[in-house]
Amino acid sequence: MKGWITLVLLSIVLFGCQLESEDSFVVYSDNMDNDILRESLVERLQHAELDYKVDDENNVLIKEKDLTRAVMCCS
Description:
This protein is an alpha+beta fold. The protein has a domain at 23-74: Alpha-Beta Plaits, CATH 3.30.70. It contains 3 helices and 3 strands; from the N terminus they run αβαββα. It has a 3-stranded antiparallel beta sheet with strand order 1-3-2, covered by helices on one side. The protein is elongated, with a radius of gyration of 19 Å.
């Protein structure tokens, strides 16, 4: 019986608490159609040495682990 409970708890921990990868990109600024504002944001991200992407919809994406640093440097 203890083995069964241990197996259930282990399954919950492994499958129920999956964390997002810190290398995944999240939207930092959405639909940046204003070229001047987007370029300014990209310059600040480059100056802070943060990885970023601009997708097809002009969203600026940054790595999830860098979110706090991006807020501090670009706000």
